[in-house]
Write a structure and sequence with these properties.
Elements lengths: L2 E3 H11 L4 E4 L6 H9 L3 E4 L3 H15 L3 E5 L3 H16 L3 E7 L25 E4 L6 H12 L7 E6 H5 L1 E3 L19 H13 L3 E5 L1 H4 L6 H12 L3 E3 L19 H7 L2 E5 L18 E6 L13 E4 L2 H9 L2 H4 L6 H21 L8 H12 L4 E5 L2 H7 L10 E2 L10 H11 L5 E6 H4 L5 H7 L5 E6 L4 H10 L14 H8 L2 E5 L5 H11 L3 E6 L13
Parallel strand pairs: 2-3, 2-4, 4-5, 5-7, 6-7, 9-10, 9-11, 11-12, 12-13, 14-15, 14-16, 16-17, 17-19, 18-19
Antiparallel strand pairs: 1-8
Length: 547
């Protein structure tokens, strides 16, 4: 049998893991890897900054459930990608960053871009290493993938010396791992399930709350089982982070604006893969006497920041399927008074938002911006959210009918994810409308990825809520140090002209009635587009970090 390069070994091993697309930025140390991926027929998307490659791999994994992969060159290429890996780590995304490395013969001699990369990644990956043997590269890939899919999941890092990936090896001599991935935790034993069913059956004011762990369930039909359980149990349901879309917007038991209120008054909370971190008030928003049933694949999350009455390491989706089998005990024919109360409050809060969203004010009210944008994208688009306050406002309006329909950075709060997330989404689902909601500050982080979108003919529709300031930070400054507010002014910039200059479509909007028509023209252009909307600069406490 013929010899193949280490780069081809890596590409074949990635394909064996189900990977069909990789994200990269060209570099000398990874030429054999890029050549291998191209020769194996993989879809290779080259970006303008390595951070974007890592973010795109993150989004690819979220949308497909497969391993997301980015290839970056040595030294600065690897360090540029570090932020994207950190974001994936805190979002529990199974992705792999493969970095180039200096030649082995130049180790410790000051070779070009010589650096011991794996040490950088020890705190933000599930596994980081250097591959030292061409014939074992497939093993490294399989081992990395296994680590990436452990528990909820997370990123891994492998760096590969240039000569290791360029060397030739007999294909017949390669050990190609089979079934290298272990099963994750599954369901509950009967005695634990009985205890949980009893607590849920006795609850008078229950709440179901799904988080990131629910997204990475191994239950194949968890969307249907979750809908069946919630429809019959008839308790308010809230979803955050990667779990959004597990029930479609408009589901009769899915709440949006009343989560804090419901948790404050709940007597039983069924937590399905939820992190009790800053986004959930560290669990302190829950009634102090509430019973907490916490289900998660990751044992470190169970009881984190809020003690669990029953804490179980199990697959959240599988547990829901087990609860469906107990609907003879848990199902209800009539509505709960408690649920009716919560959704009456939901309607009242929505009415307040509707009133603000009806404003014809100039500059445009942020709620009007949010409603117009959400109405345009509808239920079936994929929308990447990239910003601070404007994203917090718009997220309450955006609708989604499936997991991954709304892509936000997650708990790391990383700006710059918009275009990288969107380019991955459009590459994965070319027939789906893909959009980006930007703050004007966040747009600047990876704005040049519009060049990537244009070169790869990925017609994504971006829209900026442009108030000319770092509004989230200025609000915090005004609260904490009202006499010392500095460095929050950006000013209005014609960002749409930058996109036009690159070959895309751009339009400036200053009147609320023009938002929707401008978005429609952007879509009709058939090229990557940016609509720059001037909105009012006003204090919003949507991202006040618990202050």
């Amino acid at each position: 049998m013929a010899k193949i390069t280490g780069g081809q070994v890596v590409a074949k091993a990635l394909k064996a893991e189900g990977v069909d697309t990789v994200f990269t930025l060209t570099g000398g140390h990874i030429m054999p890897l890029m050549d291998g991926c191209v020769s194996e027929g993989m879809h290779v998307i080259d970006v303008r900054h390595e951070q974007a490659a890592a973010h795109a791999a993150d989004a690819y994994a979220r949308l497909t459930g497969k391993l997301g992969v980015a290839l970056v060159t040595a030294g600065p290429g690897v360090t540029d990608a570090l932020t994207g890996v950190a974001n994936a780590f805190f979002a529990n995304t199974p992705m792999m960053l493969i970095g180039g490395r200096h030649l082995t013969k130049e180790d410790l001699k000051g070779g070009l871009q010589e650096m011991d990369h794996p040490k950088l990644f020890e705190s933000i990956t599930r596994w980081s290493t250097t591959a030292w043997n061409t014939g074992r590269l497939a093993e490294y890939i399989a081992t990395g993938a296994r680590h990436a899919f452990t528990n909820r999941g997370g990123p891994v890092f492998i760096d590969m010396p240039w000569d290791i990936t360029a060397d030739m090896v007999e294909e017949s001599a390669i050990l190609w791992p089979q079934s290298a991935r272990a099963n994750r935790p599954s369901g509950l034993p009967d005695e634990t399930l009985d205890e949980i069913v009893e607590l849920l059956a006795q609850a008078s004011q229950p709440v179901i709350f799904g988080g990131t762990g629910l997204r990475w369930t191994q239950q194949p039909d968890f969307l249907a089982t979750l809908s069946e359980f919630t429809t019959n149990y008839k308790a308010p349901v809230f979803l955050n982070s990667l779990a959004r879309g597990s029930l479609p917007t408009g589901h009769p038991y899915l709440g949006n604006r009343t989560r804090s209120e419901a948790l404050k008054e709940a007597d039983v909370v069924l937590s399905l893969g939820v992190d009790w971190d800053f986004r959930t008030g560290f669990g302190k928003k829950i009634h102090p006497d509430a019973t907490i049933i916490h289900i998660d694949q990751d044992p470190s999350k169970v009881g984190w920041n809020r003690d669990a009455t029953i804490g179980v390491v199990a697959d959240p989706g599988t547990v829901v399927a087990q609860l469906v089998a107990r609907l003879d005990t848990l199902g209800r024919t009539g509505e709960r008074e408690w649920t009716t109360q919560i959704f009456a409050s939901e309607a009242a809060k929505q009415a307040v938002a509707d009133e603000a969203a009806a404003s014809d004010a100039d500059p445009i009210h942020p709620e009007r911006f949010a409603r117009e944008v959400a109405d345009f994208f509808g239920d079936d688009s994929i929308v990447a959210a990239d910003g601070g306050d404007i994203v917090s406002t718009t997220a309450k309006w955006l609708r989604t009918s499936r997991p991954g329909g709304l892509l936000d950075p997650g708990p790391f709060g990383c700006l710059g994810v918009g275009a990288p997330f969107a380019l991955a989404a459009k590459a994965v689902e070319p027939d789906t409308r893909v959009g980006i909601v930007y703050g004007d500050g966040s747009f600047g982080f990876n704005a040049m990825e519009y060049d990537t979108l244009i070169r790869h003919e990925l017609p994504v529709i971006g829209v900026i809520g442009n108030d000319g300031v770092w509004n989230n930070i200025r609000t915090l400054h005004r609260i904490a140090h009202p006499d010392s507010v500095h460095l929050s002014e950006i000013g209005f910039r014609p960002y749409e002209k930058m996109v036009e200059g690159l070959g895309g479509y751009g339009e400036l909007v200053e009147k609320p009635s023009e938002i929707r028509p401008a978005l429609e023209r952007a879509e009709e252009s058939g090229v990557p587009a940016l609509v720059n909307v001037k909105i009012a600069d006003q204090i919003r406490l949507s991202s006040a970090y618990g202050m």
